[in-house]
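Re: the 331-residue chain
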Amino acid sequence: MQLFLRYYFHLPIFLRLLLTVILFMITFGIIIHILEPVNFPTLFDGIWWAFVTGATVGYGDYVPLSTTGKIVAIMLILAGGGLVTFYMATISASTLTHEQDLSKGKVEFKGKDHIILVGWNERTRQLIQIIREHFPSDQIVLVDHTMDKLDYRHSHVHFIKGDITEDKVMDKANVKLARSAMVTADPSRKEKQSDQFIIHSIVALIGYNANLTIIAEILTENQRINALRAGAKTVLRSNDFMSSLFYHELYRSEPAQPFQLLLDILTERKFLEEQLPKELKGKPVTDGLHLYLEENRQLIGYKRDGKLHMDLTPQQFFQSNDTLIFLSPLR
C-alpha cells in the first residue's frame, strides 16, 4: 500500500485526478449493482450509470428505485460531480499553464534532428521565414536570453529562454539530438564581446554534441580563426559581406541593383559545389554549361588549386582536380 501511495503521488496531478475519478466511479458502479441487481443487471451497467450520473449528464436509461439506491445516487452527484468538475478545471488550468510556459521558453524540447538558432534578431526572424517556406517539416528551436516571450505568430518555433552556454539550457534545447546550430551575433553587445560570446557558445555546443554542425556569425576578422578552432564548421563574417555590398551599391551602374539582385538569387537559389565528373575531364567549359542547364542548374564557375574562376569562356577546358560551382533551386 505504501509503495502504491508513493507511486500515486509521483504521478502528474491530472493523471492522479483521472485515476481517482475512474476508481470513484467504478466503486459507485459496484455498489449500485450490489444494491439493485434487477435494475442494474451487469457490473458494466452500474459503472455506466455511475459515470453518467457523476458527470451530471443523466441519460435516464438506468435509474435506482430503492431508497438506499437513491441515497447512493445523491452521494454520487454531490461528490462525483464536484470531482469531475475539479478534474476538468485542473486540465484546463494545466493546459493554460503549459501554453504560457511554452511561450515564455520554459518547456524543454523533446524532438530530434532539429535546427537550433541562437539569438533573436531580424536576421534570425527572416531565416525562420525562409526555412518555413522551403522546408516546412524541419523543426526549429530558438534559444535567446533577451526575450521574455515568443510572439504567437511564431508558434511553429520552439522557444527556449536562457544562455546557450549553460547545461540546463542545452538540456532543454535537446542539443545532443540536434542536427545543426546557427549562432548569430548579439547586436546589443560590442563587436569583441559578441565574438567572445559566440566562441564560448561554440565550445559549449561542441562539448555537448561533438557531431553538431555549427554555423557562426563573427563580426571581427581576427576572431574568425578562433571560431573555427572552437569547432564551427562555417564562419560567416557579416561585416565583410555588408562592406562588399556597400561598395557595389556605391559604384553600381544603373539600373543594376546589386543588393536586391543578390537577395533575390539567395532567396530562390542555393550554391552547390561538386567534383568534376569523369565524363567532363578535358572537355570545354561550354560542354558543362549545356549539360547542367538541362538539369536546371547554372554553372557559374569552378575552383582549381584553391583559386576561383568565374570568367567562363569557350577556350577553357576542365581539369580532373576542378571543383564545379552551381546555382541550384532551393528544393
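The mean pLDDT is 84.
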